[in-house]
Design goal:
This protein has about 150 residues and is of the alpha+beta class. It contains 3 helices and 5 strands. The radius of gyration is 29 Å and the shape is rod-shaped. The protein starts with 5 loop residues before the first helix and ends with a strand.
Amino acid sequence: MKPIPARRSQGGIILIEALIAILIFSMGILAIIGLQAQSVRNSAEAKYRADASFLANQIIGRIWADRANIATFAHRPTGTVCAPSGSASGNTNVTEWLDGVSAVLPDAGTARQSIAVDTTTNQVTVRLCWVSRTGQHNMSVTTRING
């Protein structure tokens, strides 16, 4: 019997190596795509947090400008975060601000937002609440209005 040359017995190894290399490359590409998707989600969440911070500072600025009527800015001042209770504010600045909050943050209805005003110390706490694809989020900003 004639022995088979070594070259012929390893002829399919290059094909197997190529398939394994393609498999490893494909897994790497899928991992990069997953990282990109997570990065986009994180960017959206960061934008919502930045918008919430801006909105909280916006109403604080309006309160600061009209500090003689600080008590009229109270909006659903009691209750828990994202489930406030109490009376809604009739102040035009607050209603305009609430419309802006609803327009900028996802699923942030006016009934979820709260502005608590302590008239003895002039301390104001603004609580924003919104729901995004990753769940429920909230931000609370407390400041003291002097003057």
